[in-house]
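The data are quoted verbatim for completeness:
=====
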Amino acid sequence: MKILICDDHKIVRDGLKQILRQLPGVALIEEAGNGDDALNLLKKEVFDIVLLDISLPGKSGLEILQSVKTKWPSTNVLMLSMHPQEQYAIRALNLGASGYLTKDTASEELLMAVKRVSDGGKYISYSLAESLAIHLDKDKYRQKHELLSCREFEIMIKLANGLSLQVIANELCISDKTVSTYRSRIMEKMDLNKNTELTRYCMENNLI
């Protein structure tokens, strides 16, 4: 089994490597600190599983997921995130991820998830299964945010959490003007006018 870890924090990558070495049959564990580095490694080596963080500098994990599934559709991607599952999990699974775990997951669950994914299955926790069931029962009001692109969705969550355009720009390594353009698109698609309305929407739909 060949595994690629993509996370922008070295301490996280080191911790994941230590856990994954417990798995029998692991022949290679490579690491990347951002999405572009991960894509370059995928061009050189065939990996069975990519452990991919959603929050990355530059291109988001969801954007990288789309690239991986487009160029290497047989590569399994297991998403890792510090965010609550309901924020990103459904979107990630719809984009082709084989599973979704939060970073506070116990090492035993991570190993179980990797085994399941390596066998060609999908892994979701019990709490995620509940979120999926709730999602299917939601009315059409919630579906507004599903019209957003991956980047728009990511920026919407940051805006709803009260982050300024400058802070968001710094976190995503883009310009303030670009963030402002994204905000305008988000507001238009969501049929909203103010950040407070956006925050209320996200709270009502358990996105923050």
User: Anything to note?
Assistant: Residues 15 and 43 are 25 Å apart (CA to CA). DSSP finds ten helices and five strands in the chain. The domain at 139-204 is CATH 1.10.10.10 (Arc Repressor Mutant, subunit A).
